[in-house]
């Protein structure tokens, strides 16, 4: 592509617009997570002692990535937009066009999740106090989202790694 031509024709959503869509989607994902944990707790409960439920913490914690992959993956595969993204006119698309693949969905979700694990593990296993653990979980996420300010196409770090980009959908009619 020549230096005089723009590298793409799509406008990018602002950071505030993307944050608003994330908050919107959070209000949809949290009830799904609570329902999944509810089902998990009541299916694993003991018949002999119904008041005592011995559910390992990893079982509850592992529901987060599963819920995130299913929620975002199903929406992104279908239309490239979650409900929050539809409300704020944002769409996720692969760089080469077409629909987002399952592998791209999983990468885009698990990269931020994986980068926060050392912070949460440090707190859970007693390596660090709460402040250090929060910082260890926050800094990688800040790096992923801060990547936007250095990328020519204003992509986040996990977009670069997954081969996707967020675009602003033009207003209809």
The tally of domains stands at 1
The overall strand count is 2
Overall, the morphology is globular
Largest sheet: 2 strands, antiparallel
Mean pLDDT rating: 86
The tally of helices reads 7
Helix content: 55-70%
Q: How big is the Rg?
A: 19 Å
The SSE string, one letter per element, is: HHHHEHHHE
Q: Beta-strand percentage? A: 5-15%
Computed structural class: mainly alpha
Name the poorly predicted regions: 1-6
Distance between the termini: 32 Å
Strands ordered across the widest β-sheet? 1-2
Subcellular location: Cell membrane
Transmembrane segments: 21-46, 58-76, 97-120, 132-150
Protein name: RDD domain-containing protein
InterPro entries: Pra-immunoreactive (IPR051791), RDD (IPR010432)
Give the secondary structure arrangement, pairings included:
Layout: H1 15-44, H2 57-61, H3 63-78, H4 83-87, E1 90-94, H5 102-124, H6 130-146, H7 157-162, E2 164-168
Antiparallel strand pairs: 1-2
Helix pairs in contact: 1-3, 3-5, 5-6
Subcellular location: Cell membrane
Keywords: Cell membrane, Membrane, Transmembrane, Transmembrane helix
InterPro entries: Pra-immunoreactive, RDD
């Amino acid at each position: 592509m020549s230096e005089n031509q723009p590298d793409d024709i799509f406008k990018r959503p602002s950071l505030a617009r993307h944050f608003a869509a994330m908050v919107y989607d959070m209000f949809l994902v949290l009830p799904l997570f609570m329902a999944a944990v509810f089902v998990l707790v009541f299916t694993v409960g003991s018949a002999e002692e119904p008041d005592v439920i011995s559910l390992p913490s990893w079982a509850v914690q592992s529901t987060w990535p599963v819920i995130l992959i299913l929620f975002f993956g199903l929406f992104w595969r279908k239309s490239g937009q979650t409900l929050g993204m539809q409300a704020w006119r944002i769409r996720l698309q692969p760089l080469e066009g077409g629909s987002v693949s399952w592998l791209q969905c999983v990468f885009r979700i698990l990269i931020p999740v994986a980068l926060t694990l050392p912070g949460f593990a440090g707190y859970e296993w007693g390596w660090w106090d709460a402040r250090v653990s929060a910082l260890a979980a926050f800094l990688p996420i800040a790096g992923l989202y801060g990547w936007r300010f250095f990328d020519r196409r204003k992509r986040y770090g996990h977009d670069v790694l997954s081969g996707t980009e967020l675009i602003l959908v033009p207003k209809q009619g």
